[in-house]
């Protein structure tokens, strides 16, 4: 019997921003980490979201799908300084 019900990718994407900001509690952190261990897609998403947050914190306020996060990152990189 599973103690923790595994999170779906959608649930992880929804809390990923809070997770990176350390706004999630320990139990949720554990569930997210467990999911990230098994899901390469979410690992990539969280990594890109982290990069996006570092480069442009204001962009993260809107809810982007994983594909959008990459597009945003690309746009930031291509934008002349
Ligand atoms: Zn996932």
Characterization of the model:
The chain has 81 residues and is an all-alpha fold. It has one domain (9-78). The protein has helices spanning 9-20, 26-38, 40-55, 66-78. The chain is elongated. The relative contact order is 0.14.
In a nutshell, what does this entry contain?
About 65% of the residues lie in helices and about 0% in strands. By secondary structure, the chain is an all-alpha fold. The longest helix is centred in the middle third of the chain and has 16 residues, at about 40-55.
Structure summary, number of beta strands: 0
Structural class: mainly alpha
Distance between the termini: 54 Å
Q: Evaluate the radius of gyration.
A: 14 Å
Overall mean pLDDT stands at: 83
Give the bound compounds.
Answer: zinc ion
Question: Which characteristics define this entry?
Answer:
81 residues, binds zinc ion
